[in-house]
Amino acid sequence: MLTSTKSFLTLDVGAGCLKLAEFEITEAGALCLQQYGLKCLGLEGSQESKREAAVLRGTQELLASKAFRAKNVNVCAPGFHVFSKFVKLPPVDTTKVTQIIQYEAQQNVPFPLEEVVWDYQILGTTPTGELEVLLVAVKADIVEGLFRTADAAGLRLQLVDVSPAALCNAFRYNYSDLEGCTMLLDIGAKTSNLLFFEKGKIYARSINIGANSITQDFATEAKLKFDEAEQFKIAEGFVSLGGAYEEPENEKQAKISKIARQVMTRLHIQANQTLQFYRGQQGGSAPQRLFLSGGASIMPYTAQFFAEKLSVPVDYFNPLRSVQIDPSINLEELAKVAHSFGEVVGLALRNLAQCPIELNLMPKSSLQRQKLSQKKTYFIATLFSLVLVAFAIGWFTYTVSADKRAALEELTNKVAPLEKTAEELTAAEAKVKQYKLELDQVTGLVQDKFYWVDLLCELRRIFLETEEIQTTKGDGSRSVDREVQRGQTTGGFRVHHHRRGGEAKDVLGRAHGQALRAQDDAGHAVIRGTH
């Protein structure tokens, strides 16, 4: 059972027709039909390249035709897209059941498991302890197409069911009082479903024969377009009873009645084979009655045809038998299509109570999105709380910042006079440094005054010594032999000292001039220093 809002939608996406209904769960816990609608898809419903666009267009037209209030929708996948099979598993430990079923799925599903969405349900056990399992699968891109259609139509897809499961749930809900074995034959546009109900036992098989075969064969033979043939079939078609019955005078009626009988004969052959398998392999009993459902089941003389072939009473399945009907609904109009609403009611029961078969062919990614959507309220509340926390933090930060700005302004007012005083001190310090530099220059000049005096005295001393030596060495009374003994060294000495004496005079003259200038500079500097 799914948790749902008070009002919700169910959509049966058939091969030839869309059936949409809105249900409400009453305060007493009963299921109430609020409104419904049907939309034929025509040939586009059977063409894969055009089918999704046709389904979306039809769904939008149905939603626009009446004031459907609900947005949550349960969808039944088309039977011709679904693979279903009943399998029996040997008695195994419960911990290994899932592993065994997955192995059976790999062996039976005609597609790689990574390309399909599949589910299963254990229906019971046989007297020998074998597990009876219903295995269903549909290609993942088909389910994704249903999601795209729902989103584009503004609906929220809640679950994806299959026809056999939905029909089973609807039948159990409405005919739980029946005893013995009951057959239900649902004749669709492209496929038909045959179900057996007996003492809690369930068995189902999908048969790839539907009413579109009648339309297609008649269109070919009568050289009509598919839509024209379909309209004629609905308006004037019937199932020929054969034998001694007279054929109609209308040539088209005669053609379509024979074609319908041929198709129904093929369907009966498959149904009879399924019945024999059910009795022989599943341990079932002979059926005591047959219920017909599906859009093609109302073709005139269909019930008589199967009553004759199967030799059992035939009636039409009423899936609304235990469902309340809103007073605004026209009961006469509803009675004309009620037999085809088995899947629609079965989908609705998933929101009402625990059902005998509960499958959900939704991809894991879609289930995650669904869970996320269910938690959206909590996420919004959490986000709102975070916004409040952020606002409180921002307000606190703003208040603290204002206090800090006030304190900073107060400190700035106090620091401003101190900065002015610091600038004055810096200027005074610069002047002190300038005065000190000038003082150092004056001190250097005073010291240079004594330097030049000492230099002149030293030069004078050297000059006097040089003159004395030259006078002594210049004595001509010295003998030639002595000069020879001294050799050229003596001559070199005389020349050298003679030159040295001349240079000394020049140096002394320059030094004397510089000393006089230095004395004048020092005197002026001292005078400036005193001032």
Protein model, in words:
- There is one protein chain.
- 55% of the residues lie in helices and 18% in strands.
- It has 531 residues and is α/β, with parallel strands linked by helices.
- The strands form 3 sheets. Strands 8-4-1-2-3-14 form a 6-stranded mixed sheet, with helices on both faces. Strands 11-10-9-12-13 form a 5-stranded mixed sheet, sandwiched between helices. Strands 5-7-6 form a 3-stranded antiparallel sheet.
- Helix 5 crosses helix 6 (226-236) and helix 5 packs antiparallel against helix 7.
- It is elongated.
- Mean pLDDT is 84; it is low at 476-505 and 525-531.
Low-pLDDT segments, ≥5 res: 476-505, 525-531
Q: Strand portion, in percent?
A: 15-25%
Percentage of residues in helical conformation: 40-55%
User: Structural class, from secondary structure content?
Assistant: alpha/beta
Number of helices: 14
| Amino-to-carboxy terminus distance | 115 Å
Q: What is the mean predicted local confidence, pLDDT?
A: 84
What global shape is seen? elongated
Biggest β-sheet strands, sense, barrel: 6 strands, mixed
Based on CA atoms alone, the radius of gyration comes out at 58 Å
What is the ordering of alpha helices and beta strands? EEEHEEHEEHEHEEEHHHEHEEHHHHHH
Strand order of the largest sheet: 8-4-1-2-3-14
